[in-house]
Structure prediction request, 424 residues.
Amino acid sequence: MDVSLLIARRLSLKSDADNRSGRHRSPAVGIAVTGIALSVTIMLLTLAIVPGFKHQITEKVFGFDAQIVLHPVQPVASYDDGSTVTVECGDTLRNRLLSNLPTGARVQLSASTPGILKTDDQFAGLVFKAFDDGLEGSIIDSCIEEGGIPDYDVEEMRYAIVVSRTTADALQLSRGDKVNAYFFVDNNLKTRRFTVAGIYNSHFNEFDKLMAYVSMPAVRSIAGLPDGAGNYIEIRGIGRDEVTDARIAMQRVVSDAFYDGTTSCYLAVNDAFEKDPMYFNWLDLLDTNVIVILVLMGCVAAVTLISCLVIMILERVTLIGTLKSLGATNGMIERMFLFMAQRIVLRGIILGDVIGLLLVWLQWQFALLPLDPEAYYLNAVPVEFNWTGIALLNIGAVVLSLAIMLIPAHMVSRISPARVMRFE
Prediction:
């Protein structure tokens, strides 16, 4: 066994005075363990909260605005006759799209039209949107607070509407209420009477105050769209890292489909990053915050660890002088103190992991820390267990601490055994 390791294992983390008086370990050791544990806890919370926040906001943006949208390009001739260009998504086109998309992607035909929802004394301007396969499994389905998602395959549900909590509160609506909607189409006023089937609350106010959801037949009859047609083809179920590659693939597919006659008009391809850049730019800025926090907490841990090791060396000057007089080299004594410092580091990291993981689990399970939805689009601090990040954090903490401990350990070489013995 290495002599340095043997001596380090026999030495306690108490100072010489502490050993004589029977007190507990040196306050410097306690401060170092606490500082390292606090730093690890904060870094672990950062790695849990920031990715969780980015994930949930991204899911909400992708829930309202599809990852990829195909929309027909308006030819010049259509502006003269005032006609609206529509798109159809037959089986041939749908299969060609899906064959070039990642597994799990969904292709939906959607249609929308602007209108006004009005009660006796209030009104709200909304976009009335519909999907050919309904709202089941959508973000709206997961955010229902009152009522439910109507079955649009049933004829009686044709004029059922799902509105946001923001709209419902503004118009004082509740489930089952009847409400009139007004639409201006081709310079004509159209009126429809809807029944509130559900009220959702995504806490994403920019979308909540704008969107209402109805059946595809209702939108087609209001906007004058032919059967089987819509305004857009939306593609969902793609990971954020896959969007760019999928968009490039879709551009190739729609070009081939137009030139071989599968589609009657050319389809432009856009993705959510182009449509909602402000959200994704904001989320990307959070990565800078993570780096700043990790660096600051790393500095805090480094300073406390260096201070602790310096104090431990100064408290054991007599021991160092004795070992040198017996023939111990500077390298052997340095390794002895490095082994002792490793014990402090491991205690701090383990304590920080336990506290950090416990806090993350409590927040994940009980949502103890709320957020203002008006500012953050979420009603509680989001967390996720990023096990890869946690493992890398622990490995990095150990490696960094070993490198940092080399700095104060070199103090040993400046201690002269003759001078120590003279003062003793």
Residues 15-24, 76-82 have pLDDT under 50 and may be disordered. Residues 39 and 152 are 54 Å apart (CA to CA). The first helix runs from residue 3 to 10. The longest strand covers residues 106-118.
